Give the backbone structure.
Amino acid sequence: MTHLSVSLGHRGISLGHRDDLDAEQWLRDVVLPLSLPDLTACTHLMREPYPHVALSFAGTGLDSAALPPVPPELRDAATAAAAEHATRRSGRAVYFAGVERLVGTITVSELLDWSAIDQVAVLGGAPAQPETRIHTRDFVRPQWRNGQLVLTTQPARGGILVPFEMPDPTPCCADH
């Protein structure tokens, strides 16, 4: 069995995680303890061979022996995730340079200076101004778009922005 699929120096792994939460928990349990200094890790929603979340990684020191093997039926998904990350076409970044500093309320300028995020987009609004405050909710998940790592935000009360993705969303069919 293959441990990781490699594309252009990026690595992909697909283990059939059912959602982003499950994939992120696996990252925290298995990959983060490896203490890789320049890790970028992304999640990717895959449709084949069945809906699941694959992961991609960039960085040095990732030893495939420390990771579980990719099941044969998920190898194509792992390869696709690695390729999407390598070309910066897609991927939801979970771990990236500076993510640990993006806590509390900071300015757009600080967010861009302190992290690998290239751009802050505001849903339905004008471009984010450098002095605009972002309440991160300690949960920042930018996505690769057209070669840039973009954090999508939305306006909130008090003239601040918040990341569009919430840390603990209510499932659409949850009992209320």
